[in-house]
């Protein structure tokens, strides 16, 4: 009954057995020559892909480490630059203070020297005035004793050098 039903559908058991034998022969041939090589190629490709993933993760970690190191170095350089600027500003301030003190000392010394020079000039001029006064007085007295003319005395006073 099953045979007749399958026969009506066009099923032939001899063709089915031949197809099964052909399938098994092709399967064993593929298994012997293709499947092992294909499995090896797939395994090799999988291993290579995993190696690339590991390498990429390693590179990502190294990049992250490098970025952290770079950031750390930049912060260190910034701190060092700030310290150098602070030191330079302090040194500048100290130099300006010293220069200001020296300038004040030089100024005071110049004032004292100017006062001394002024005193010397005043003393010298006072001596010259005394000498001229004495000389003028002598000329006036001498001229008056020679000739008591007041007009002549005025001319001597107007031109004391003559």
Task: Record the SSE blueprint.
Layout: H1 2-9, H2 13-146, H3 150-158
Q: How many separate domains?
A: 1
Cα(first) to Cα(last) distance is 178 Å
Helix percentage:
over 70%
In DSSP terms (H or I, runs of 4 or more residues), the helix count works out at 3
Overall structural class, as computed from helix and strand content, comes to: mainly alpha
Radius of gyration: 63 Å
Give the strand content.
Answer: under 5%
Mean pLDDT: 86
Q: What does the overall shape look like?
A: rod-shaped
SSE order, one letter for each helix or strand = HHH
Largest sheet: none
Total strands: 0
Q: Which residue ranges are poorly predicted, with pLDDT under 50 across at least 5 consecutive positions? A: none
Structural description of this entry:
The protein has 162 residues and is mainly α. Helix content is 93%, strand content 0%. It contains 3 helices and no strands. The chain is rod-shaped.
In brief:
Helix 2 packs antiparallel against helix 3 (150-158). 93% of the residues lie in helices and 0% in strands.
Short descriptors:
single chain; 162 residues; mainly alpha; rod-shaped
């Amino acid at each position: 009954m099953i045979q007749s039903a399958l026969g009506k559908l066009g099923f032939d058991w001899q063709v089915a057995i031949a197809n099964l034998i052909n399938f098994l022969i092709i399967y064993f041939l593929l298994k012997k020559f293709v499947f092992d090589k294909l499995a090896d190629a797939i395994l090799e490709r999988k291993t290579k892909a995993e190696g690339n993933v590991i390498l990429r993760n390693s590179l990502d970690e190294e990049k992250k480490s490098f970025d952290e190191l770079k950031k750390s170095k930049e912060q260190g350089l910034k701190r060092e630059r700030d310290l150098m600027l602070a030191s330079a500003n302090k040194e500048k301030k100290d130099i300006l203070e010293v220069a200001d003190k020296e300038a004040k000392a030089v100024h005071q010394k110049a004032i004292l020297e100017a006062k001394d020079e002024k005193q010397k000039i005043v003393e010298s001029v006072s001596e010259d005035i005394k000498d001229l006064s004495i000389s003028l007085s002598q000329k006036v007295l001498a001229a008056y004793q020679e000739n008591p003319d007041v007009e002549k005395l005025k001319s001597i006073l107007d031109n004391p050098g003559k």
